[in-house]
Amino acid sequence: MKKIFLNKKEFEAKELYYFTVGRQEYFKPVYTVWVANNLIKRDENGDAYVEIPFKNCHLSQVKNGLLLKEGDKNLYLFEIECGYRGDAEILEIKTDADHESFFYDIYESEKGNLGISAGVIILTPAEKVKVKWQRSGRLYGEASHGIDVLYVDGKTETIEEIDEELLREID
């Protein structure tokens, strides 16, 4: 499980909690995810956070971003880093059930000249999600393509540099 610490905004004597994902030009966030107060956890210092993958939730689009509240689906967050001065792309998402995806870019510099990584928020009732990805740029020995399998308990399996035909034969 990955902890995402939340930012706080006070409005009309209420505390609203949120986190941002993605970075556009000049590091402007792509999505602001507002979190319902009953879903927030606190650590020993009193800091608010959520754990991803998130079970039993729903994500809906609102005027100022996305709203995370109680529901019957699971939320996964996946990001793939690009190589130096390259880019990354999420090619395919497979689940056992219907899914909703919110894609975003992650600029590694103000204008993206140092590379543009990729990310996605996936909302589905499925217990596991397969994400196929590729990346370019100077990779320094890292894989240029692969498949990650994300499980709802937080476990992740990565298969790098595998031929698709071989994978089909194994399945």
What does this structure look like?
This protein has about 170 residues and is mostly beta strands. It has one domain. It is built from 1 helix and 15 strands; from the N terminus they run βββββββββββββββα. The strands form 2 sheets. Strands 2, 3, 4, 7, 8, 9, 10, 11, 12, 13, 14 and 15 form a 12-stranded mixed beta sheet that branches. Strands 1-6-5 form a 3-stranded antiparallel beta sheet, with no helix packed on it. Strand 2 and strand 3 form a beta hairpin. The radius of gyration is 17 Å and the shape is globular. The model has no long low-confidence stretch (mean pLDDT about 90).
Quick structural gist:
This protein is mainly beta.
Write the layout of secondary structure elements.
Blueprint (H helix, E strand, L loop, with lengths): L1 E4 L1 E5 L2 E8 L9 E5 L5 E2 L5 E5 L1 E9 L2 E6 L2 E8 L5 E10 L4 E8 L7 E10 L3 E8 L9 E7 L4 E5 L3 H7 L1
Parallel strand pairs: 4-8, 10-12
Antiparallel strand pairs: 1-6, 2-3, 3-4, 5-6, 7-8, 7-9, 9-12, 10-13, 11-12, 13-14, 14-15
Based on the model shown, name its key terms.
single chain; 171 residues; mainly beta; 12-stranded mixed β-sheet; 4% helix; 58% strand; globular
Average per-residue pLDDT, rounded, comes to 92
Helix content class: under 10%
Classify the secondary structure makeup into a structural class: mainly beta
Order of helices and strands: EEEEEEEEEEEEEEEH
Range of strand content: over 45%
| SS summary, helix count | 1
The whole-angstrom Rg is 17 Å
As for the number of domains, it is 1
The shape, in one word, is: globular
What is the oligomeric state here?
Answer: single chain
Flag low-confidence runs: none
